[in-house]
Amino acid sequence: MVAMDIAQTTEKIFQPKPSEKFESKTYRLQPPKRKAVGEAGRKIKLVANHFDLNIKCTEVYHYDVDIQPRAPKPMKRRIFQTAMKENQQLQRFYPVFDGVKNMYTARQLLDLPPGEQAKLTLRYAEPLEPTRDYTLVIKQAQPCRVDITPILQYVMRGSTDAIPQSAVQALDIVLRHLPSLRFTPVGRSFFPEQGDRIINIGGGCELWIGYFSSIRMGWKQPRINIDVANKAFHTAMPVLDKMGEILGRSFNPDRGLQEWQRNDVNKQMRTLKVEYQRGRQGGKRSYRVNQLIQQSARNAKFMADGRETTVERYFRDTLNTPLQYPNLPCLWVGSRDKKIYIPAELCTIIKGQVNTRKLGAEQVSSMIKNTAVPADQRLKRIEGFVRQAEFNKDPHNREFGLQVADRPTEVTGRVLPAPVLLYSDKRTETPRDGVWSLQAKRFLDARSLNNWVVLNYDPRTQTEKVLNFVRGLREAGGQVGMRIAEPRDVVCRDGTNVDRVDAVKDLTGIRDHFKPELVLVVLPMKNKLYNAVKGAGDVEVGQLTSCVLAKTVFRGDRQTATNICQKINAKMGGSNNGLDARTRPKLLYEPTIVFGADVTHPPPDQVNKPSIAAVVASLDASYHARYGHRVLVQFPSEGRRAEEMIVDLKRAVRELLIEFYKLNNKTKPTRIVFFRDGVSEGQFLHVMSRELEQVRAACTALEASYQPKITFLVVQKRHHTRLFAADLRDTCGRSKNVPPGTVVDSVIAHPTELDYFLVSHQGIQGTSRPTHYHVLHDDSNFTADDLEILTYYMCHLFSRCTRSVSNPAPSYYAHLAAYRARAHHDNFLRVNDIGDDQAASPEQSIAACSPKTVPMYYV
User: Do 565 and 452 sit in the same domain of this protein?
Assistant: First the structure.
């Protein structure tokens, strides 16, 4: 139903029955307190990668530092450290510096009273840079004294709305000061020199392994969270070699670069620092790259000694350096106020520069392959980094009275019991180690596929091979209760060159001729063709599609065919399984709607793309297997960064509540459980004030007295807490992870509020990342066991596989819907040739992300 129809029917749908009474509620914007820890499940001894932090100081002193002339942050650190070495009086205080403007000391600088400032001057030169004079101006910050005792108070009785940020920031800078000088800092991570351990991941990039460090406030004790960190760095290599890595076989330096090649190289080269050899006899200089210009060295002109010349001629005649590849574009480097053009062949990328761009699929695969280690090995790496960091030998930490434990924190967790899953004919299955079988089971609500077509984009895969795969798919469907007819046709197109594929035309022709329920699309490989097909099917044509790789067709194994059937059944409105009454959480026995929400943001360098939010909600009150969705496109205000908040959440919630009401015999949900993905701790109160209010407003907009009980949880996966079994006999699988269902809600959890870490999936590769849940609001006064069991059980309702997944199905679906919309938008930009420095109109972006297909098209 379109938005206009929903608005018109709202008055008729939500009308209270005469006997209904609604109690007015007053809401507090403060997370509920934990009343008790959970008790369900068997106990298990665990180790967490949190290390106790003992704090002996009660106050520190804050000063502002201004360094002139301006310099980048890493360079400021080195200038500051050089100045401290030259000033013995200041050095004895062991001051620490954050590389921007904040300096802290453990003792007050009595020679620097309020209103006065100290000036330090020095001469300093970076490698390959000329020597310059720098001035440091130091003065008291306001306030100067920073009280540290609120940290110790917080770990005893703290609340999210009163985090002692100034004290935490001060100690964080203390702990980071020396590592930032010894290692390469990237955000909160530190990367030692890799030596001969460097791992090439392709594309001119290499994998560096370091450690992550952050202060965490657990029960009665502040701690440092230490974890392994992995980052892609640009390989130190000649720029010509970097071009070859980026462009592959298409790169021919003799011919120069085509426009698309220059754009691809520009994406990787912008802002990189390069070393430039000035002629055969000249010295070396370093510059930051602005971009590759369109002109080659042969054509680019500038003024030298009062007359116009080309870059090629200047290097040949003046610097006695004939260019080998004059047809390549020049690098524009240095100040943007100047036009300094340098031939690419004379430049080399400087070592130690992190890659901030999005990695390619092969690079990501290589990263995973080289970083996914069993849990016990990861713990050993973490303990090794703690020894390498030498926290307790750092004179700055000693000066400030900080001491870090040598051993990680021990904690008692629990392994929750697995739910009993319900299939057709009341058959049930109980997962073991997060996995279960469909053998002799039929889907709870199996749909038939009577009219469908195969669209084969891989010229290597012959029709006979496709039909063999189809036979296996039909057999697998029959075993799970789906009746899958023979496909109406196998349409073959050449999808080798993505830019020559017209997926809209292909799907429109199939739709108009066959009017199929589904088109199964065979793709040659993982590339942009997937986005092109999904953009065409979901948005342009309104044709439901399911994609499969050609190598999957060739392999043709039964388990893959069954997995595809699960996806198709969900897309067509069926339900694969549900929770059996014996283990169904009691809170689901009254009408409950479960929401999931997520927001995806564009990369920082792509200003032409909006943020995209997705909101999904369970529409079947019995099994919570079918979900409706809304996709919301939101643009940041001019000059501001993308916002995590969902701007139009009220409308999305309101419309989904109406869908639930219609599909459940005009039953209103009495409870709302909302899983909100992707919110950081610093945004908790902002979410509560903005999004929780919108959920309430959506309810009262339908009916003034409609006030269902709301439980609002934040789902966090981007954190660095890891759990390890203290006894290897308690581990699960080859990766030696903790078993699925492992939950921790004490010691490393919030001191007073209801939060918990849950490992709900079996870690197949690498170390399992627990998902962190934090309850921001709860009208139902649920216990820890109520919420932990509900969360864990909903991780078994994801329709793609017969495994419990890492987060509840609704938040997983919201994530998929948001990223599918992002793929639609990217495809729209590609098809319409809108570059990174351009922007689609809001109307175009909204249309590009608005699907025409069935509710669960994103599965």
Answer: yes
